[in-house]
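Changelog entry

Holo records now carry the ligand SMILES as an explicit input line rather than a separate metadata file. Below, a converted record for magnesium ion, shown in the new format.
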Amino acid sequence: MAHAWAISRSKPANIAKVVVVELTGADGSVGLGEAAPTARYKETPQTVEAFLKRVDPRGLSFTDIKGSMSYLDTLSPRDASAKCALNIALLDGAARRAKKPLYDFLGLGFRENHHVTSFTIGLDTPEVIRKKVADAARFPVLKIKMGGADDRASMQALREVAPEKAVRVDANEGWKTKEQALEHIEWLASDGHIQFVEQPMPASASARDWAWLKQRSPLPIFGDESYHLAKDAEQAVECFHGVNVKLIKTGGVSVGFDALRAARKVGLKTMLGCMIESSILISAGAHLAELCDYLHLDGNVLITNDPYLGNRSSEGFQRHDTGAAIRLFSVRGRDYCLGRARCAGRLRGSSRDGLRRAA
Ligand SMILES: [Mg+2]
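Structure line, unchanged by the conversion:
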């Protein structure tokens, strides 16, 4: 990673481990997917690989994504990140076979250079925050992590370098009570350039406490760790002004599509976020941009050894026009690791439409 990474519930780390999946059809068509497992959802590279070993390729088909995902759900009610990797690989293969970009395969379209992504400033010392903010000058919107030892010092450091830049705040469940959360949000509102505050309290906070905070908050509050699936939308609208969907916690693009659409239907603002990811996951997420009011897809910008070409956001604007034939994922190298990322064995074997494990 370009910088040590820390949020409210984690110690600084320099390496993020991911698992890459490659599905190969009997006709040679290929789909790539990626899991970025996180301890927050009790997943690790080892749990992802253990799940993948249980997958019978005969249950997967490039021509039946829905049936394939139903099969995966019979294996485990959890393992969203592992299912995400397979869902993306299935959709990648299906869209390639249809010779369409995934956003067209999904019927969404995509406006080039329209969608703006924010860039993350993780928890750090004021000195390092100042440097990170200066290095991120090309990004029009920043997202700063809070819930650390001294949030005011972090914000002050950011403002010394970027006095009026638009900023999103992510507390990652770091403020433990509704009163503490409200006090922080009222202070942030006085800044005048904060767009919204993400997950101010723990996901375990009661719906009553969330409703209390939503009613009083001078800034919009977004649920991230509190929002996963489309079925959660009715509850979420009582608690939040918007929600942050991530592919690795919903279980992939298909479920993320439903979660975003359900949120919009009940009147919630929508955001698509990410973890530390390569361009596979980031590109897959960017194909859902037209369902989002806000994007936060900077995971592939935070790492220094991305082996893929894909969606780019180097100036803060999402672009798919990077040369890949169907503007999906363009592979720079086949067998690789991100830092010490674990590379899953590719699926081999025969299936009803010829998906097979390879290696
Ligand atoms: Mg978040």
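Spot-checked after migration. The chain is about 35% helix and 15% strand. The two ends are 28 Å apart (CA to CA).
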